[in-house]
Amino acid sequence: MLYDLLYIDTFNLASYVTPNNMLVVELPVNNPRIERRLSQVQAESSALAQFGQFRDPIFDYHGFVGSADFHPRIIDTISGQKQLKMNVAVKNYRPEQIKVSVKNDELIVQAEHAYSDNNRSERSFLTKSITLPPGTQIEQLRSFLSGDGQLEIEAPFIEPNKQHSIEVQRQF
What we know:
- By secondary structure, the chain is mostly beta strands.
- The protein has helices spanning 32-48, 61-65, and strands spanning 14-17, 23-26, 73-76, 82-89, 98-103, 106-116, 121-131, 142-145, 150-157.
- The chain has one domain: Immunoglobulin-like, CATH 2.60.40.
- The strands form 3 sheets. It has a 4-stranded antiparallel beta sheet with strand order 3-4-9-8, with no helix packed on it.
- The termini are far apart.
C-alpha cells in the first residue's frame, strides 16, 4: 500500500527481521485529516454524553447543542438531578414584554417593545425557537430575566434509561 511520504513519522520507525530472513520496516503514518476527524468525533461524543446512553435517534442533538441563540446545556444539580439550562439575550426588553411558550416540544421566546413620543415611534420584535430534547420536563419549565438582559430558562431533565421495544404482531 502506498502512502503519501508527507505524513510518515520517521522518528518512530521500527524494523525487524522475520524468522524466514525478511526485513520488515514499519513507518507510522500520521494523517492530520484523519486525526482531526477523530478528535471532532470524540468532542461530539462527549457533548452528547450529557443526554445519556439511550438517546432518541430522531432528535437532532448536534443541532440542539450547537444552538448559538440558546446556549443549551445539561447540568447536575446539588440534589443529584439533571437540569436543562438555556439562556437567550433579550436586552432592552422588560419581563412583561417577553412571552415564553412551548408548542409540540418547541420552546418559543417572543418579545415586543413599543415606544413613541411626539416626534417618533418605534417597535422592535424578537422571536427565537428551539426544539427541546426528549426527557425535558416541559410542565416544570421556568424562566427568569437577569439584570444583564439574559433570559434564563430551565427545566428538569430525565435521562431516558432504556430503549422501548414494541412487539410486532401479526394481523389476521
